[in-house]
Write a structure and sequence with these properties.
The chain is an all-alpha fold and 314 residues long. Helix content is 68%, strand content 2%. The protein is built from 13 helices and two strands.
């Protein structure tokens, strides 16, 4: 009975729009759902450095190289913010990273696709970061305080990344026929995987209803996906690009763009580890973790030395 009352009181706080802080009482299910969601978000930022990082040395100019390098650094920072926020829920960073490296934790399916051309980098900035900002603007209003506050800065940087990506896409779309063909090809390959980023349909999503009830999310997967389509179809048409969807049409009654059905077999295959780059991405993360072991050990040794010196000084 006490547990039931606790849940009622907790839900009342959520319904009143209060922020839940780390030391507040919370249902264990709420804590576990946040750990799952926030750690997955952190992992996605770190793994998400790989597709674009692959092009830093091959960027077509020093300006573009500096822009891309800065963007990848931002993504590393986002991962660190999110790992730190998740640690407030009582899980260590080592445990979260171990879950990623052993396949127990997931990251966004979008990062299991290859970047085949420089245009892919631009389209990722426009489409993938565009999808991220739609989702993350919602999360900046999350009921969990540390998550909400971390998202405020992340949203500002992601918004800038999206604008950068669209500027580059518009430049290439207005270039030579070869450049136009290159950017259209990238859009053709990234459009559907980007729609998959929002997750399964609401009826097939096991977590959405609970997360909305607890104020972690305020919109469903399908609502977010529709917002993305409405915004990005208009942006594509503004620069002369076509959306690779023969079923795409504007619905005057709803005021939204109707679009075709996603290949959910492909989505679940990628989620289960069978995407084009799943194995390569995890191999790269495991190697990076192992190669950085000496840095972690050196930092720990230095910290121990500092503590000993401070103790001696007391």
């Amino acid at each position: 009975m006490e547990e039931q009352i606790s849940h009622i009181e907790f839900q009342q706080r959520i319904d009143n729009g209060e922020k839940i802080e780390p030391k507040d009482r919370m249902p264990e299910r709420y804590r576990k759902q946040l750990i799952r969601m926030m750690s997955q978000h952190a992992h996605s930022e770190i793994v998400g450095m790989l597709p674009e990082g692959n092009w830093i040395t091959r960027a077509p100019s020093l300006k573009r190289k500096m822009i891309l390098l800065s963007k990848v650094q931002d993504e590393a920072g986002h991962g660190l913010y999110l790992y730190s926020a998740t640690e407030t829920l009582g899980i260590s960073r080592d445990e979260m990273i171990n879950q990623l490296l052993t396949g127990q934790a997931k990251y966004s399916s979008i990062f299991n696709y290859p970047t085949l051309s420089w245009a892919d980098v631009m389209v990722i900035g426009w489409l993938v970061d565009g999808a991220a900002i739609i989702n993350q603007t919602m999360l900046a209003r999350s009921s969990y305080g540390p998550y909400s506050r971390a998202m405020i800065r992340i949203c500002k940087e992601e918004s800038f990344h999206k604008k950068q990506g669209y500027e580059m896409v518009a430049t290439m779309a207005g270039g030579t026929p070869e450049q136009q063909e290159m950017v259209q090809d990238a859009v053709n390959r990234w459009w559907w995987p980007t729609l998959m980023m929002f997750g399964p349909h609401d009826n097939d999503s096991p977590n959405s209803a609970e997360l909305i009830k607890w104020g972690v999310k305020s919109k469903t997967n399908d609502e977010l996906r529709q917002s993305f389509v409405d915004r990005h179809v208009a942006e594509a048409h503004a620069v002369g690009l076509e959306i690779p969807d023969p079923d795409l049409k504007f619905n005057k009654e709803t005021g939204h763009w109707d679009f075709g059905e996603i290949d959910w077999d492909e989505f679940w295959s990628v989620v289960k580890g069978n995407g084009p780059m799943n194995r390569e991405r995890m191999k790269a993360r495991r190697e990076a973790h192992e190669n950085g072991r000496w840095v972690r050990e050196a930092a720990e040794a230095y910290a121990r030395k500092q503590r000993l010196e401070e103790e001696k000084a007391l």
